[in-house]
Amino acid sequence: MARLNKLIFATLALASMAGAAEAHVGVGSTMGFTHGFMHPLSGLDHLLAMVAVGLFAARLGGKALYLVPAAFVAMMGVGGVLGINGVTVPFVEFGIAASVIVLGAAVALDFSLPTAAAMALVGFFAVFHGHAHGAEMPLAASGVTYGIGFIAATALLHVAGIALGLGIAGQKPAVLKIAGGAMAAAGLGMMAGVI
Q: How far apart are CA 107 and CA 178, in angstroms?
């Protein structure tokens, strides 16, 4: 498990440093995928919420391990389509900050929800994240490749959260609770506008 965690961290570190290839800067689908992939990795709010989904799924275990992240990805796609098409979703920034608070608290307090309820919870918040991604798509980007990019990055962050959750929960469950509490506190800071 330690090896998997190191691999995930190395992948995330490399992905966050990657830029577009100079020969293809700003060219249609290349720009779309690159911008889409980098969007979830470039904002602390998205990063924390998406890792928290993985941690939460790991805490729930069983079928929730894959169904909860899948629900987030699916509903984020719906939100992305809404954002790309200019459909208004009210309180997007509030919803994103609330997702960090609630999902961090779910990890910190070890919420035990039925899988369907956990899927509904993360799916609700995913619409806000997806809308933000879609609404911020560069005009020259391809919506399809941009969407594939932010979905791929989100799935990677979920996998990182799951790996961390499974690795830490078995070794030091108190660390997981502290991490969830720190996420919730960061969400409160985002809501208050200090982060």
A: 9
**pTM, rounded to two decimals:** 0.84
Q: Domain locations in the chain?
A: 51-192
* Contacting residues for 14 by C-beta, under 8 A, at least 6 apart: none
Is 113 strand, coil or helix? Answer: coil
Sign, Cα dihedral of 95, 189, 174, 165: positive
- C-beta separation of 142 from 37 below 8 A: no
The answer for residues whose C-beta is within 8 angstroms of residue 193's C-beta and 6 or more apart is none
Cβ density class 74-89: b for 16+ within 10 Å, e for less: ebbbebbebbbeeeeb
pLDDT score recorded for residue 173: 85
Instruction: Write the pLDDT tens digit of every residue in 173-182.
Output: 899 999 999 9
> Quick one: DSSP state of residue 23?
G
Spatial separation of the C-alpha atoms in residues 36 and 98, rounded to whole Å = 23
Residue found under tokens 């980007």:
141
Query: pLDDT tens digit string along 95-135?
Result: 999 999 999 999 999 999 999 999 999 999 999 999 999 99
Contact 176, 168 (CB under 8 A): yes
Alpha helices in the chain (DSSP H): 2-17, 28-42, 44-60, 64-84, 92-108, 115-135, 143-171, 173-192
As a whole-number percent, the residues of the chain with pLDDT over 90 amount to: 73
